[in-house]
Amino acid sequence: MRKKLQLHKLACIALTITMVGCTDLKEQVIDEVLGSNNSNPENALAAAYGQMGDATFVDHTNVFGLSEYSTDEAMLPTRGSDWGDNGVYRAIHEFTWGPDNSLVTNTWNNLNAGITKSLTAISTINNKADFTNKKLFLAEARALLVFYTYHTLDLYGQAPYRDPYNANAQVEVRKAATAIDDLIKEMETILPDLANLKEQNTNNGRFTKQAAYGVLADMYMNRAVFKDRYATGGFNFKEAAVDNNGTDMDKVIYYTSQIINNSQFQLESNYFKNFDIDNNGRPELVFVVSQNINNLRGSDNDFAYMPMERNQKPSPNNRGTNAVCTTPQFYHTWDNNHADPRFSRHYQYSDGTWFMNDGSDTSVPASSKVANSGGLPWFHFNRGMQVGQQYGPKISGTGFEMSPANRIKVFKLFCEKNTTLPADFTPELDFSDPVQSVFTQAQINRGVRIFKFEFDPEKDNATSNVDIPLVRLGGMYCLRAEAYFRNGQTDLALADINKLRTTRTRESLYANAPGVALTALTEQALYNELGFEMYWEMQRRKQAIRFGKFEAADPGSAKPESKPFRRIYPIPQSTMDATKIYQQNDKY
């Protein structure tokens, strides 16, 4: 069962002010264990969890933006009069960001807030007299500290730390090259104290042993990058593991296998079920940011909201924003693979009607209703890659335009900000200036859109019931396949990739056809397959760096050739101005 969350305000502690300079943060707290005293262990631990959903891993201007907009998977161009914002979004894709970029600053501050709250939880739990869940809560708080610190080191190469067991300890700076081993040791140390998923009242929104296995696999996969960030001749993926028991890749294989071989996790045949509004507790999701629309807290739908055209309306109360698209480079990796069940999927209504989105639709039933909205009809868009002319409902008065048979009429859609321009999503971008991702008002339809996450039709654009996957079984197969490949075990890597391809099936419109197995696996093919499985899940930047793709130019998307120093982001200028403890990253 989903843990219900409620909104609670906590004062920022002195450590938070020292590390991130925040004021008045809003926290999510688990109401089953909520107490009125802000210093109690349950409150402190819930606050540490809450930071994941407080923009950090759910908003497009945080970890998603830095992990995706800097790659071939996603970009947020300026579209006519929208999304200029002094170039802060374009800078990430054009590789011109600096220490004053707001995405760089927002993400740093939010990850630092996660570190702070985890340290506070550790200290609070440790200082409390023995209670029933002390060992478990302390392990979870320590795991969260590793989690937030790991992502900070990944993106910035540095992270703050203060000994939570020493009230007089000073803030210090951890560096990626040395801290990665400490993080691995810490996570491995606390493993025995973490619960197995669904034991001790845990769910996949809590840090369990299985969540730890997934994070450990990711840390070992990227350990070589952390140790030699600016390497120009490739990374040493076969270094001896931290405990000298095998290599980094052996550890990736071991930890991913702990999840893959666990019978409570199963790959979804319908790939998009992992990203549905009702994905809570799905058998492929190991660790998630738990989200729930209610009257007590916020949640976020940016991963669905940002790619949709403003005139694509799942309900009369909601719309998209015509912003984020993928690049021609990533879209064309799918050439000759459009039958892959992960590429796209049509929606079927309860009466059997399929939304084809090809001009043949005249209406769809109004039987699907938006919860908590007075019975408003819910129009379901298709999922995956949306390319070409788009179709959907129109607003008439305060509702959808309906047919005489009380069905939702379907129309050819035009862009809201240019009403004579068809909403025809083109694979090619064709910027007027090839080094700037800027569209005129006559070009705002360009770019294939990714509808991977289901769009919530309720309330407004900032709310969502979709749990955001952080560790997913499909991702474990990807990591293990890559580790096998780097170990020279290509046959085993191919088997894992084909397990993903053939387990996913198309909709019944296409006779539930499974994906087609590969007969061979090259490095480029493996890189493509990681993209097919993990796109839009904040993994592409790390993948691109490991495969030596991150600096390459992409002329079709205004991405220039870059230098290795951009494999990490700068420490924000506001932080550099406020404290002397950081040394700015190289060439920033």
From TrEMBL:
<dbReference type="GO" id="GO:0009279">
    <property type="term" value="C:cell outer membrane"/>
</dbReference>
<dbReference type="InterPro" id="IPR011990">
    <property type="entry name" value="TPR-like_helical_dom_sf"/>
</dbReference>
<dbReference type="InterPro" id="IPR033985">
    <property type="entry name" value="SusD-like_N"/>
</dbReference>
<feature type="domain" description="RagB/SusD">
    <location>
        <begin position="283"/>
        <end position="585"/>
    </location>
</feature>
<keyword id="KW-0998">Cell outer membrane</keyword>
<dbReference type="Pfam" id="PF14322">
    <property type="entry name" value="SusD-like_3"/>
</dbReference>
<keyword id="KW-0472">Membrane</keyword>
<comment type="similarity">
    <text>Belongs to the SusD family.</text>
</comment>
<feature type="domain" description="SusD-like N-terminal">
    <location>
        <begin position="58"/>
        <end position="220"/>
    </location>
</feature>
<protein>
    <submittedName>
        <fullName>Putative outer membrane starch-binding protein</fullName>
    </submittedName>
</protein>
<keyword id="KW-0732">Signal</keyword>
<dbReference type="Pfam" id="PF07980">
    <property type="entry name" value="SusD_RagB"/>
</dbReference>
<dbReference type="InterPro" id="IPR012944">
    <property type="entry name" value="SusD_RagB_dom"/>
</dbReference>
